[in-house]
Design brief:
two-stranded antiparallel ribbon, 9 strands, alpha/beta, 2 domains
Length: 313
């Protein structure tokens, strides 16, 4: 029988192997998109993990995984996103403060992928709210993107709203410089205003038809200060769509184990390290109602997506 100490180090070895397998999978995604093959050692590692298979021309990802990548418009961002998460995990292992130093191209790829994801979430929400569906077709609708980053969400929103305009708020000058570049490349620079501003300092009223509010960019204090501001900034009949990484169900007991329990615990630990707002959908809906919005409710989203709460002005 293994001693407790032996079991601990066996589990550590297994986890290290999983980290390297994740890195190998991310690298294989890059190889798949560029048309490059996998080396014998690279392919053998992914083959042992069940992700790759040997063919007459060498190792390649299994057909079902290649098909899944082709079906995802944001698949190209996966290698950079994985590398960033592994770097952040390394910082956590050493007790260092999270200070990711991603290059411009990684940030731009992440922004484009974020825009695609939010556009998909809008489609889901519109199926549950005819008022939102009508708003997305309203010519000249004005949109607010909180924590705009490189402007990926703002660009995706104005592209789908006829004649729509957007304001993108961010507190990072570097991000806004990248937003200028990204928006110009998308051909929507004249329809989006990147603005160096904290959402808690927003003073506009009855100015926007739609607000996108991701809690992942806000501390709990900033989120609490922001809610009445964005509620006042919405026009009557406007919609606020807020996203939180924490999902509502099922409720996990502290002693629960398994993939879902681990995912929830990882999210909460990362949130605490980054001082990110840890509100689950139920609390978020209650706070939106207290800020003066109505009909705040969670919209069903895919299991591995963020949770989305929709509210009306």
């Amino acid at each position: 029988m293994a001693t407790p100490g032996t079991d601990l180090f066996s589990r550590i070895d297994a986890l290290v192997g999983e980290a390297w397998t994740l890195a190998a999978l991310a690298s294989a995604v890059s190889a798949e998109r560029s048309g490059a093959g996998l080396s014998e050692e690279h392919g053998a590692l992914l083959g042992a993990a069940g992700f790759a298979e040997r063919t007459a021309s060498g190792w390649r990802l299994r057909d079902e995984y290649r098909a899944a990548l082709r079906a995802r418009p944001d698949a190209g961002a996966l290698p950079g996103r994985t590398a960033r998460l592994l770097r952040l995990a390394a910082d956590a292992a050493e007790g260092a403060v999270e200070e990711p130093a991603d290059g411009d191209e990684v940030l731009l790829a992440e922004g484009r992928a974020s825009g695609e994801r939010v556009s998909g979430l809008l489609d889901l929400a519109a199926r549950h709210d005819p008022g939102l569906a009508d708003l997305l077709l309203r010519p000249g609708a004005v949109l607010l993107d909180v924590g705009t980053g490189v402007g990926g969400v703002a660009a995706a929103l104005v592209e789908r709203v006829p004649g729509g305009r957007a304001v993108g708020l961010d507190t990072d000058p570097r991000m806004l410089r990248l937003a200028e570049r990204h928006l110009a490349e998308r051909g929507v620079r004249d329809r989006v205003e990147p603005r160096l501003q904290d959402v808690a300092d927003l003073i506009e009223e009855d100015a926007y038809d739609l607000v996108w509010l991701p809690l992942a960019v806000l501390s709990p204090e900033a989120a609490a200060a922001a809610l009445p501001r964005v509620a006042a900034a919405l026009r009557p009949g406007g919609r606020l769509i807020a996203a939180t990484a924490l999902r509502s169900a099922p409720q996990l007991a502290p002693e629960d184990t398994g993939p879902r329990a681990v995912r929830d615990a990882v999210l909460r630990w990362r949130m605490s390290r980054r001082n990110v707002t840890p509100w689950p959908p139920e609390e978020l809906a209650e706070r939106l109602t207290a800020a003066g919005l109505r009909s705040a409710r969670e919209i069903p989203t895919p299991d591995r997506s963020v949770a989305v709460v929709l509210a009306a002005a």
